[in-house]
């Protein structure tokens, strides 16, 4: 064990003495999350809004006034047919339509309950989410102000519906997606590069000719990256929470366990890549083209999987990141327990075992 | 196999094939305990293949091979503990200091702290590296690196040390000093198995073998070989062999 720790210490020394490695390891996640975060959380201003007021009473008219005078919204058109909603969206005249149900004021006064529907064009999921939040805010303020004296609070049921992207892929997605991407990058790329570096410099031969067993060498090289990747995962979650209010609704422990599983998977991929590449450059190209790009494009991180052509959808099923993103989304945003993600977890576990087996086999062949 | 205790390496009918290419063609030789054994040959003659097999880095296709009394098929782990290895490529870590490199390898070979401290001190003093022991390897001259790499390879006092073209790219003076170090190592009872391109270095060996196209074409003391091939020096011997 002492021998092993000496070896691990050396690996840490490599990492902490190389400026570039440090930047990739610690700078990259922070920069990426802040970049993505701010692209997603843009301010909104002068959003075109369509109004369908079925009630046309005092309360609904005043509510509309409030919306239009808030500074965030501009009236595009008033409509009175269901079909016109779609037309407004397709022509791009409006991003959102507000629908007041009929007899709005009467229902409110008599039953304490009335409904408003917010229908958003969610093809741009991020701004759609924002528009809804702002509209809800404006309406909530208004109803609170006219009912200050009332003893029973009015229930205004604001129902939101997103057109074109009902699942809201995109919003909040950037944290799980970034986690999948960064962990893959750091774990797979860094380990494959660090192992091929030993090959390139000839130190691998020396290690193999020493009493160290091959598995000790690989484990020793990988261990520091397990720790650092894990710290990274936690940093991303923390940053998401502190800077962008992305919550962890579910169990943090479960999330950490799943992160460890995904990190192990990425590391075994890294080892596998190192066994097939002769130089550091090759390892880098393999990791970038073979892992990074597919992870960005096919995992559902940026482009919704449902919108992909069939063959790409099929391809996305072999992307580990796809399953990891589902897992993280479920735990972080929906707060679901293990019962709902055991299938994805099993897939990730299977992939990990497969990669480890393949890596061990390749490593042995190299020694023949 | 006759187990002559004086034969620290015993090779019989070693064959190594890569696909249809025969890299080592029925090699048979032995290395005596405590000698400097020169393993010569042109590029691609199959020297590195043999050295890798002897070090347990690769399996032979067939043949009986024993290194330090152990079988290369089944007792690699035992062999690895008894040998030192210095590869063709320069093999210390550039981003670690002189001292860290020494301690890393010492740790891998399970030396205890007391041994490490004592031997490190001696080593640094002998090489004159004490003042720069905390400098990174990449900042010290090549000649020193090479000497240090050799010292690290024998730091754990192995029975045999394998040197794969250890003096490539080094100036003549350093090469000379390097061979003095090799000689000193044999005084401590270490057997030296060395490959080289430099035929003048072959003169320093107790015995040399000359490999051509995967086969050993000659094996004896340098003086005997020179006589046999009617040559002034080893260079001529080598050229005569390689041409035929």
Explain how this protein is built.
The complex is a heterodimer of chains A (368) and B (244). Chain A has 368 residues and is α/β, with parallel strands linked by helices. Chain A has 2 domains: 2-39 and 172-367, no CATH class; 47-163, abc type-2 transporter like fold (3-Layer(aba) Sandwich). Chain A has 14 helices and 5 strands. In chain A, strand 1, helix 3 (58-69) and strand 2 form a beta-alpha-beta unit. In chain A, helix 2 runs parallel beside helix 9, helix 7 runs antiparallel to helix 9 (214-244) and helix 13 (320-334) runs antiparallel to helix 14 (342-367). The longest helix of chain A has 31 residues, at 214-244. The mean pLDDT of chain A is 84. Chain B has a single domain, classed as Rossmann fold, CATH 3.40.50. The mean pLDDT of chain B is 91. Chain B has 9 helices and 10 strands. Chain B is an alpha/beta fold. The radius of gyration of chain B is 18 Å and the shape is globular. In chain B, helix 5 runs parallel beside helix 6. In chain B, the strands form 2 sheets. Chain B has a 6-stranded mixed sheet with strand order 6-7-8-3-9-10, sandwiched between helices. Classes of the chains: A alpha/beta (368), B alpha/beta (244). Chains A and B meet through helix 1 and helix 8 of A and helix 2, strand 6 and helix 3 of B.
SSE topology:
The complex is a heterodimer of chains A (368) and B (244).
Chain A: H1 2-17, H2 19-40, E1 47-53, H3 58-69, E2 73-78, H4 82-91, E3 96-100, H5 104-111, E4 113-121, H6 125-146, E5 155-163, H7 174-201, H8 203-209, H9 214-244, H10 252-276, H11 280-298, H12 310-316, H13 320-334, H14 342-367
Chain B: E1 7-18, E2 21-32, E3 36-41, H1 47-54, E4 62-67, E5 70-71, H2 76-82, E6 83-86, H3 98-108, H4 113-127, H5 142-153, E7 160-164, H6 172-187, E8 191-196, H7 199-202, E9 207-212, E10 215-220, H8 222-228, H9 234-243
Helix pairs in contact in B: 5-6
């Amino acid at each position: 064990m002492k021998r092993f720790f000496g070896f691990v210490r050396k690996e840490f020394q490599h990492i902490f003495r190389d400026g570039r490695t440090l930047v990739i390891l610690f700078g990259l996640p922070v920069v990426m999350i802040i970049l993505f975060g701010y692209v997603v959380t843009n301010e909104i201003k002068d959003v075109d809004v369509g109004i369908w007021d079925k009630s046309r009473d005092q309360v609904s008219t005043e509510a509309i006034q409030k919306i239009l005078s808030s500074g965030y919204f501009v009236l595009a058109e008033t409509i009175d047919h269901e079909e016109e909603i779609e037309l407004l969206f397709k022509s791009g005249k409006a991003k959102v339509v507000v629908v007041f149900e009929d007899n709005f004021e009467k229902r409110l006064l008599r039953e304490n309950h009335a409904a408003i529907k917010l229908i958003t064009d969610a093809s741009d999921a991020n701004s759609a989410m924002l528009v809804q939040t702002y509209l809800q805010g404006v309406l909530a303020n208004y109803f609170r102000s006219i009912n200050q004296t009332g003893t029973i609070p009015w229930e205004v049921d604001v129902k939101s519906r997103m057109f074109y992207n009902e699942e809201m892929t995109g919003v909040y997605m950037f944290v799980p997606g970034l986690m999948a991407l960064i962990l893959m990058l750091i774990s797979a790329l860094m380990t494959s590069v660090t192992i091929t570096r030993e090959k390139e410099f000839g130190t691998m031969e020396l290690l193999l000719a020493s009493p160290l067993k091959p598995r000790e060498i690989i484990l020793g090289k990988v261990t520091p990256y397990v720790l650092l990747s894990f710290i990274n995962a936690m940093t991303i979650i923390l940053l998401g929470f502190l800077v962008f209010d992305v919550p962890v609704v579910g169990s943090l422990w479960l999330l950490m366990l799943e992160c460890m599983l995904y990190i192990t998977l990425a590391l075994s991929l890294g080892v596998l890549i190192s066994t097939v590449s002769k130089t550091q450059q090759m390892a880098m190209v393999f990791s970038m083209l073979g892992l990074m790009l597919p992870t960005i494009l096919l995992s559902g991180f940026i482009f919704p999987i449902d919108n992909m052509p069939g063959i790409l959808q099929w391809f996305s099923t072999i992307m580990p990141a796809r399953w990891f993103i589902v897992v993280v989304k479920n735990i972080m945003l929906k707060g679901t327990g293990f019962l709902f993600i055991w299938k994805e977890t099993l897939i990730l576990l299977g992939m990990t075992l497969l990669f480890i087996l393949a890596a061990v086999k390749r490593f042995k062949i190299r020694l023949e | 196999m006759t187990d002559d205790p004086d034969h620290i390496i015993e090779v019989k009918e070693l064959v190594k094939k890569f696909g249809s290419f025969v890299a080592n063609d029925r090699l048979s030789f032995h290395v005596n305990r405590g000698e400097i054994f020169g393993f010569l040959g042109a590029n691609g003659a199959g020297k590195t293949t043999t050295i890798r097999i002897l070090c347990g880095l690769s399996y032979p296709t067939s043949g009986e091979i024993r290194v330090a009394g152990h079988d290369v098929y089944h007792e690699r782990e035992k062999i690895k503990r008894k040998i030192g290895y210095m590869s063709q490529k320069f093999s210390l870590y550039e981003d670690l200091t002189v001292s860290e490199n020494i301690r890393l390898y010492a740790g891998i070979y399970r030396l205890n702290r007391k041994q490490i401290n004592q031997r490190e001190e001696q080593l640094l003093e002998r090489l004159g590296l004490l003042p720069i022991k905390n400098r990174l390897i990449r900042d010290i001259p090549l000649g020193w690196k090479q000497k240090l790499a050799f010292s690290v390879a024998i730091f754990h006092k192995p029975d045999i040390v394998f040197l794969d073209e250890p003096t490539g790219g080094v100036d003549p003076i350093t090469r000379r000093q390097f061979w003095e170090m090799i000689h000193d190592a044999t005084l401590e009872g270490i057997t030296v198995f060395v490959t080289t391109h430099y035929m003048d270095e072959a003169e320093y060996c107790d015995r040399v073998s000359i490999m051509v196209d995967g086969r050993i074409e000659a094996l004896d003391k340098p003086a005997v070989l020179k006589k046999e091939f009617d040559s002034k020096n080893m260079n001529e011997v080598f050229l005569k062999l390689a041409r035929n």
